[in-house]
Amino acid sequence: MLLTIKKHSSYSIIEAPERVDTLLAIDFEMALLDAGTHEDSNMVIDCSKLVYLSSSGLRVFLLVQKKMLAKGVKLRLCHLRPSIQELFDISGFSTIFPIFADLKTAITEIVNSDDLLL
Amino acid sequence: MIRIRNLSKHYGDLVVLKDVNVDIRKGEVITVIGPSGTGKSTLLRCLNLLETPTGGNIFIDDIPLLDKGTNVPKIRQRMGMVFQSFNLYAHLTVLENLTIGPVKLLGRTKAEAEARAIELLKIVGLAEKVYSLPEELSGGQKQRVAIARCMAMEPEILLFDEPTSALDPTMVSEVLAVIRRLSKEGMTMVIVTHEMDFARNISSRVFYMDEGIIYEEGPPEQIFENPVREKTKAFIHRIRSLDIRISSPNYDLYAIQAEMLTFCDKHFLPHRVSDFTLLMAEEVLLLQKDFSDIHLKLSYSEKDGTLNFVCDSAGEAFNPLKDELAEDDIGLKLIFGRCQTVDYARENNRNILLLKIKNA
Ligand SMILES: Nc1ncnc2c1ncn2[C@@H]1O[C@H](COP(=O)(O)OP(=O)(O)O)[C@@H](O)[C@H]1O
Ligand SMILES: [Mg+2]
Known about the structure:
CATH topology of chain A: Transcription Regulator spoIIAA
Shape of chain B: elongated
Bound molecules: adenosine-5'-diphosphate, magnesium ion
Radius of gyration of chain B: 25 Å
Number of helices of chain A: 4
Structural class of chain A: alpha/beta
Number of strands of chain B: 15
Number of strands of chain A: 7
Largest interface: A-B, 18 and 17 residues
Order of helices and strands of chain B: EEEHEEHEHHHEHEHEEHHEHHEEHEE
Number of helices of chain B: 12
Distance between the termini of chain B: 44 Å
Helix content of chain A: 40-55%
Oligomer: heterodimer
């Protein structure tokens, strides 16, 4: 799976694909781990294109977050479509993940909270 | 207005229409439904003599269509036919498409014909396309022009042969809306269609065709809710529900979801509901343990808007709603979140999971 990744000094932005189902979940997981944990950098996943997400996809988010937390880097999600947001709400994932309305607020938050740490 | 008596049509040895007997009264809206190949198109084509019947007779206001002395072109003018493919004159503007017939065949002046054409284009919602060429129109717009062109010939009876079958799903409703509007103005219409919700709402009577005859006819409530005869029952059951069989763990999820999407579109379900319905299929399949014989069934009732999804599977008794060994309950949470009720039962040695999917 080819994901669009934009790297910045303190974070990278990854664009989620249109669909993450059982068959695509493994690919998605590899791509995320490659992009995120590898570099030990904070990561924002832009979900604006994501329209179909199953439990297998949600599990990927969970696993990636776990790995990133272990490394002390942050994972942020942004720009969820209403139906995807609903799935996050139903599954209780909205309380596990910091979700932002758009890319800009997600980045601002990452940058600012880094400043606080320093 | 139309009386059909002992009508038959054979193509060589193939008996398409065996013995059709039926009356259609002025102002009635008849929809004709049935499996493909049962002679629905043939019946329409016999009605306006695009085909010569093998036997029997058709009477239009007591004029026998098949008798030698009958003025066929004159009778045919009283009937307009709209086909699946739009058949517009490609090199003529919309306006010219509508006026050429009335001027050449009805002896109207150009001004008369144009005034009427513009009136009709307003009725079908295309007044602004008067000077467009057919190629500049969408499929739905072309079909609406085709309907207006038909009306320009001042027919007393309109025949439609699957007027929306060649259209992109997004354009079906605009064409159906136009037909519905004409029906309210008292046009006598005979419509062959696969759009069952439409048929149910618009018709005064429904003809179910099978076995070369009008196998069952009646008001839409009877045909769609309480069909009497065996084949009608089977047909109505088939269109109301989608059945999918799975016999291996390597099932084709995308093919299954594509079929389900087509079913949802056919019933005009909102996108968000169909998206979640596809998701339910994936989640339910993820809960299964035995894939040797799974039978998925999706059904929709227009009456109360319920969308039921059943997963009926062979194998040892297993209730996936209470699976202590499951890795997590994310899938179950999604299922419970998007369903009104979810129930498990063990029946006839099979595991039955019934989901009432939220339709909003
Ligand atoms: N011109 C023709 N020559 C031979 N067979 C035909 C012809 N037109 C239709 N048929 C046959 O007649 C049967 C009924 O066709 P049709 O009236 O188009 O069915 P429907 O419209 O119900 O799908 C089909 O088996 C079809 O192949
Ligand atoms: Mg046909």
